[in-house]
Design brief:
Layout lengths: L13 H28 L7 H17 L5 H10 L5 H11 L4 H12 L4 H28 L1 H13 L12 H18 L5 H14 L3 H15 L7 H8 L3 H16 L17 H21 L6 H17 L2 H20 L11 H38 L7 H41 L7 H7 L6 E3 L2 H10 L6 E3 L1 E2 L2 E2 L7 E5 L9 E3 L5 E8 L5 E4 L7 E5 L5 E6 L4 E4 L6 E9 L4 E7 L15 E5 L7 E5 H9 L2 E7 L4 E8 L6
Parallel strand pairs: 1-2, 1-5
Antiparallel strand pairs: 3-4, 5-17, 6-13, 7-12, 7-14, 8-11, 8-13, 9-10, 9-12, 14-15, 16-17
Helix pairs in contact: 1-6, 1-7, 1-17, 2-5, 2-19, 3-4, 5-6, 6-7, 6-8, 6-16, 7-16, 8-9, 8-10, 9-10, 9-12, 10-15, 14-16, 15-16, 16-17
């Protein structure tokens, strides 16, 4: 099979290969832009509210707290840094950490020119999609050529990576994109200018704390691009010794957060004293194995038989490369895999093997590149051999070439089934994540709620980190604040003027999703039914609502002609009301009224218990008790609900002379 050793970097399909490469890049880029961008059209806030607003709050602090007082941040930091329980630590490190300064500065600049904080984050995430996907394509092109790089990019785009993977394009993933682009530059210029290495490393470090690892990888890239093996320390030292000032500058930037705590660039210490280290490492290793299994075999994205064919193709791709590119691919892949495997040793109390998961795309990239080259080489060889037979039908194949052609044809025949399955599962996964990003925690926090109290706020109580981060970004950083509770622990004193409360059904804009199979059950103290009404959204218009007693007795049916408050026809005083729409599509219920004079969406302090479904991707019903939200305050304050539209309620508090009065 000597003919398999044709010029390895030859473009087997000419202009059609270039067309294929461009089409693949556009398809992969479009797929990722869709999974990030389309959910933004159906949401009021960016996806994954807690993480998103932690990044936004960092930008808010860069814009405001460096030049003016931010008493809310100071008071919350003091409260959450006390103790080592994970609940306090999780909030503290999100408030404390400036681990993505460059991203934050970019968002602050966008906000300064009039872009909202939410749109600033969305803009940065969409830009990151472009940087990462084109960076992967550029690096793979230098390793295996344009057509094979296109195959590698499609594989990377369709794989289900764990953790952030390539679905959540946050600052740490942006640092990965910077490393890919630097790799493409360095390989194209045999290392290139050391100043570019310094610039790329500083950008990665300032994007996210994981950028320090990518900076180290870029140093290895610099050596490998110059032909130095990263596993020969003496050779590495000879290559890097002339660049010692550059290396010292990178090291200083990477250590800045640890050496100068006031900069707050490095993560605060994880309270691992609550963990048994050996058990934590064992858990981390198990989680890493589960990540790999999920990435390859979940939903039969790759069958057991196909995985062997893919592995063989990747090995063939490595063998078919010329010596220089083979050496680069193997060295870069080995370093990436060592880094990822080392990430297992990073112990995290709530996310085992999180560093391994975040570095896994870098390690996988080189396997995908080898697989792409092996696939293109196999197709090219089979195509050229078949064309040769057509041109000279009387010619005979050598035995080795005949056997090779039969095996290659069988592999291609099998791969077209496995490949179609791989693509189908990958597309389904993207559709799934797109739906999750659209529906998960689709909160609605009203800026006007902060505007109601901004002038009068003297100390603010916050119930839950999600509402806290959102309200702080709206301007509440200027008012001293405290968290009302951690778990069951009551922390609020008697000096609060106002509070923000998270509604029990906050995750769907403060609404319940009601279907015939998942009705909404409302339990309360008996009241005259003439005063009862439910508030419905536009999806209910033209539908019929059935109102029932909890025992199944039909009370009334109402045709909905307009969104808003729908009175329940007069019946005997109720203890509970079941709302059930006719028809399959869900109806959104956003309020319940027991009194015609009620100005709020929900009857607070009336013992309301609601049982229903909230999140779109979760069909389970749960019980929500509205009075529980007020529990931390009810014994110490007289409470006035100022506004409870959406996912939160803002309340005015008047301290009682004696608690419990």
């Amino acid at each position: 099979m000597a003919s398999l050793k044709e010029p390895p970097m030859a473009n087997p399909a000419g202009v059609w290969g270039i067309v294929f490469a461009i089409a693949a890049v556009m398809a992969a880029l479009g797929l990722k832009l869709a999974v990030v961008g389309l959910p933004l059209l159906d949401r009021m806030l960016p996806p994954e509210v807690d993480d998103t607003y932690a990044y936004i709050l960092t930008a808010v602090q860069f814009k405001h707290c460096l030049v003016e007082a931010c008493p809310a941040i100071d008071t919350l930091l003091a409260q959450t840094s006390a103790g080592s329980d994970l609940g306090r630590w999780d909030i503290w490190h999100r408030l404390w950490l400036f681990h993505s300064p460059l991203w934050a500065v970019a968002m602050a600049l966008l906000n300064t020119v009039g872009v909202s904080w939410e749109a600033s984050f969305d803009t940065m995430e969409l830009l990151t999609v472009v940087v990462v996907m084109t960076g992967i394509a550029a690096l793979c092109r230098q390793l295996v050529g344009p057509t094979a790089a296109a195959v590698a990019l499609v594989v990377m785009a369709l794989l289900r990576f764990p953790d952030h993977g390539l679905y959540w394009f946050v600052p740490g993933v942006a640092a990965f994109g910077v490393a890919c682009w630097y790799g493409a530059y360095a390989l194209s210029r045999n290392g290139g200018r050391p100043s570019i290495l310094l610039a790329a490393a500083l950008v990665a470090i300032s994007l996210h704390s994981i950028g320090r690892i990518y900076a180290g990888y870029m140093i290895a890239l610099f050596c490998i691009a110059q032909g130095t093996s990263p596993f020969r320390p003496v050779a590495v030292w000879r290559t890097l010794r002339p660049q010692l000032p550059i290396l010292l500058a990178i090291a200083a930037a990477g250590l800045a957060g640890s050496l100068v705590p006031a900069l707050r660039f490095a993560p605060p210490p994880i309270p691992i004293d609550t963990l048994e280290l050996a058990e934590a490492l064992r858990t981390s290793a198990q989680a890493a194995g589960q990540m790999l299994d999920a990435m390859v075999r979940r939903d039969r994205a790759v069958s057991w038989e196909a995985s062997w064919v893919f592995a063989a193709l990747a090995c063939y791709g490595v063998i078919a490369l010329d010596a220089q590119r083979r050496r680069r691919l193997l060295h870069l892949g080995a370093v990436a895999m060592v880094l990822a495997a080392s990430g297992i040793a990073y112990v995290h109390p709530t996310h085992p093997a999180t560093l391994f998961g975040r570095l896994l795309p870098l390690a996988t990239l080189f396997v995908a590149a080898a697989l792409g080259f092996g696939t293109i080489r196999l197709l090219s060889w089979c195509g050229s051999t078949a064309l040769g037979l057509l041109r000279r039908p009387s010619g005979l194949l050598s035995p080795s070439k005949a056997v090779g052609l039969v095996l290659a044809g069988a592999a291609i025949f099998y791969l077209q089934f496995s490949g179609r399955g791989f693509v189908a599962v990958g597309l389904r996964k993207h559709d799934f994540w797109q739906q999750v990003k659209t529906s998960r925690h689709d909160a609605r926090f009203e800026r006007r709620q902060w505007d109601l109290i901004a002038a009068d706020c003297t100390r603010l109580g916050l119930d839950g980190r999600n509402v806290a981060f959102v309200v702080l970004s709206y301007g509440a950083y200027a008012c001293p604040a405290t968290f009302l509770r951690f778990g069951s622990e009551m922390t609020a004193g008697n000096d609060l003027s106002h509070a923000f409360l998270t509604l029990p059904n906050w995750a769907n804009r403060g609404q319940f999703l009601v279907t015939p199979e998942a009705p909404l059950t409302l339990r309360f103290a008996g009241v005259p039914s003439a005063s009862v009404a439910v508030q419905v959204g536009p999806a209910a218009v033209g539908r019929t609502l059935s109102f029932e007693a909890e025992d199944g007795r039909a009370l009334a049916k109402v045709d909905v002609t307009a969104a808003g408050w729908i009175p329940v026809p007069a019946v005997a005083p109720l203890q509970a009301l079941v709302v059930r729409p006719l028809g399959a599509k869900p109806v959104e219920v956003s309020g319940f009224r027991l009194d015609p004079a009620q100005q709020t969406n929900w009857p607070w302090l009336r013992g309301l218990e609601a049982q229903g479904r909230v999140e779109r991707h979760d069909v389970a019903s749960a019980i929500y008790r509205f009075d529980d939200v007020l529990a931390p305050l009810a014994r110490r304050y007289d409470i006035t609900i100022l506004d409870d539209h959406g996912s939160s309620a803002v309340v005015a508090l008047n301290p009682r002379t004696k608690p419990g009065d």
